[in-house]
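User: I'm putting together notes for a lab meeting next week and I want to include a structural view of one of the chains we've been expressing. I don't have a solved structure, so I'd like a prediction I can at least talk through. The sequence is below, exactly as it appears in our construct file.
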Amino acid sequence: MRYGYWAPVFGGWLRNVDDEREASWENLSRLVRRSEEIGWDLTLVAELNLNDIKGVEAPALDAWSSTAALAAVTRTIELMVAVRPNFHQPALFAKQSANIDRISGGRLALNVVSSWWAKEAESYGLQFDQHDDRYARTTEWLQVLDSLWTRPRTDFEGRYYALKDAIVEPKPLSSAGRPRPVIYAGGESEAAKTLIARYCDAYVMHGDTPEVIAPKIADMKARREAFGLPPMQFGMAGYAIVRDATAEAERELERITTIPGLAKGTPPPGFANFDQWLSGTELERELKVREYSVSNRGLRPGFVGPPEAIRERIQEFEAVGLDLLLLQMSPQEEEMERFAAQIIRR
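Assistant: Thanks for the context. Below is the predicted structure for the 346-residue chain, given as structure tokens.
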């Protein structure tokens, strides 16, 4: 199992806890540099210009300028950065990302996200496509990106993008095991899964139980084989609470899942964005309000309890084919130290 975590671009990842650390370059860079030292493999840098967790008026760090800076001050950690095709012209992005990859020494990876937040796109004056149109755009975007990264010159004529004699040099670093930056993506619709199996290298899922994750992995493996492509990687989001005693872990769980003001009709600032996200996605089953406090269904995997119980739970996910965990925790620095000492290094 490889272990990754969500970088604190919003300050923290709990929607109903308001005393997490601030979103700042100082906090971000300190945490990422320390994570290398204690054994973390990867950090996911989310890309939203408005703060989806703490409310739209709260600070949110820019993903790509932050990643360029992280590339220069880190040595080993994989930098998986979210990118939304409707926010980035592909030829310019290919140039920018190739440069960041070289600054990092070949540690850049992409998390391609077909945008879901209409409010943000409208606020920034950008096109917001409906569901299937989003994936059609992403398909073209990935085709353009791959061509620019692998061919001397690119001509492209599509529905969304047109290029004539485009050149990207220098290209990203490549090797036999990594011919280009790894492309991760997630999605549960038919359009999303078809796109990911054909054009991406890894499938990332919201948190859930091994029984739910197993058929998803099997389905994507079959789709991948049908395209005659190499095996994929499989990752999943989760939220971890490691404590010596179960009762102690349960008390922390109660603290982070209590939503102040909700029963009285005064929910926290980000709740409206959560409602909008639900209305624009295809989920297998309705999310519980309790899960609002932790994003990406992070509590469903069950990484809450004593170290030995969490290690056994991780083994259950490994057994069904999962090879990457993308974890959230809070307060992040302290909890990442605890997780590294009691889970990763064991």
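A couple of points you could mention at the meeting. The chain has eleven helices and eleven strands. Residues 282-286 have pLDDT under 50 and may be disordered.

User: Perfect, that's what I needed.
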